[in-house]
Amino acid sequence: MSAVTFRRVGGEPQARRAVRPGGAGMSPVMLRVLTLAAVVLGWEVLARLYLQDSLFLAGPVAIVQAIPGTLSDPAVREALAITAGEFLLAFAIATIAGVLFGALLGATRRAFAPSRNLLQMAFSLPQVALYPLFVLWLGFGFSSKVVFGITHGIFPVLLGTMAATKMVDPNLVTSVRAMGGGRRTILRKVVLPSILPEVVSSLRVAAALTLLGVLLAELMVSVGGVGAMLHSLSSSFAPARLYALIATVCAAAIAVNLVLGFFERRLSRWRP
């Protein structure tokens, strides 16, 4: 436990934590990097010593070496293109519909509480068990996978936009109206700057869930896309190629999350 000293400022004693002789501790980023490096190193040692001929597990070095060959396969590139198209369409629809309806419900006082409770209940449902209904209604293929991705991603956007719209400071709205601003001015100067950081934050969750919904649909029906390719590779006992494809999808998901996180920080710069 670190020592605590007291200093007097303006007649009132204030606590000040003593500075450690070694300076500040290890940063969280460095701790995460070292933890990840330790996991990868342990994985590689385990793979080289005990799992060299394994049909189910490959080491990190073998996975990295398999990435160029895996991505050069025309079937893999086609699967990635199919999944990317399904994800982008599902995410765009979930974003547009979620923001529009979320803002409308958040601005409607009487509809906020009942709609929020209904959406939270629907969000908690296990959608995997409902996918056969999507197949029954929309058939196998593109439509059912896109709609399944939308139903996974739209709820965080709806709930996040509703909460952000509800929390818009009414004093700012009143001030703009007092200065002669109309609805467009209120929307542009008050509402959008207030809700955009929360909306982008909810989009980070929605992007991951949308991709999850699309991949689950592809895995269950095995019709095109990365999910079907993963199913094929897992059945052909090619662990290095299988993990290489998984690593590629994970890298793409991380990239999307980082881009949205960048915009979230940029949009929040005006806040204290």
Structure description:
With 272 residues, the protein is mainly alpha-helical. The chain has one domain (66-267): MetI-like (MetI-like fold). 75% of the residues lie in helices and 4% in strands. It is built from 10 helices and 2 strands; from the N terminus they run ββαααααααααα. A two-stranded antiparallel ribbon has the order 1-2. The longest helix is centred in the last third of the chain and has 39 residues, at 183-221. Residues 18-23 have low confidence and may be disordered.
Topology:
Blueprint: E1 4-9, E2 12-17, H1 28-50, H2 60-71, H3 74-107, H4 109-123, H5 131-138, H6 142-166, H7 170-178, H8 183-221, H9 225-235, H10 239-267
Antiparallel strand pairs: 1-2
Helix pairs in contact: 2-10, 3-6, 3-8, 3-9, 4-6, 5-6, 6-8, 7-8, 8-9, 8-10, 9-10
Question: Could you write a compact summary of the structure shown?
Answer:
With 272 residues, the chain is mainly alpha-helical.
Spell out the key features of this protein.
272 residues, MetI-like fold, two-stranded antiparallel ribbon, single chain
